[in-house]
């Protein structure tokens, strides 16, 4: 199956932010495309990983990066020569934008307006050789995966949106109640399916009678 640079997309409820599914272990180079922005603040935690040259029992400490960088081009050039696993990355730029890394699998982008958000999404998709897509068609707080370079499919486990960091505590609490109610309903339906006896159709009954002439049609024929 073909793997795309950007695997998923989700719009956040503040209407200015979004996340992209990206393998950040291999593809932090994407941050070079923000080189025109000046870094205002950064938080980076890393751990040395020497790969096959590192002994199995060796475990390096997790450290906070102290070295300053003016922009992402300097940062990526610095990291390209280091055997670092980036465990946490948060960048804040002077124009008000932010970028955060999430668990090696996502980059979260924070802009100043829906227009900036949409323009940035299309720019990053273009860099990845994907898109264009109609951002206005995406539902807030639902994750979509790229079935093709331009085709999105909504991932919908509970048929309700998933919370993000902009939800209030009350909204999150209500969401949890909804999820618990859906889980209970699904469990009840599964139990009913397990206990409900199989009802044979007319064609199945005819086939059974041919195979088992003495079958009474009620007990199990086997």
Given helix and strand content, the structural type is alpha+beta
Helix content: 25-40%
The total strand number stands at: 9
Which sheet architecture does the biggest sheet show? Answer: 9 strands, antiparallel
Instruction: Tell me the series of helices and strands, N- to C-terminal.
Output: EEEEHEEEHEEHH
Unreliable segments of 5+ consecutive residues: none
Could you tell me the strand content as a percent range? 15-25%
Descriptive terms for the model:
4 helices, 9 strands, 27% helix, 2 domains
What does this structure look like?
The protein folds into 2 domains: 148 residues, no CATH class; 43 residues. Strand 8 and strand 9 form a beta hairpin. The protein has 4 helices and 9 strands. 14% of the residues are buried. The chain is of the alpha+beta class and 222 residues long. The model has no long low-confidence stretch (mean pLDDT 88). It has a 9-stranded antiparallel beta sheet with strand order 4-3-5-6-7-2-1-8-9, covered by helices on one side.
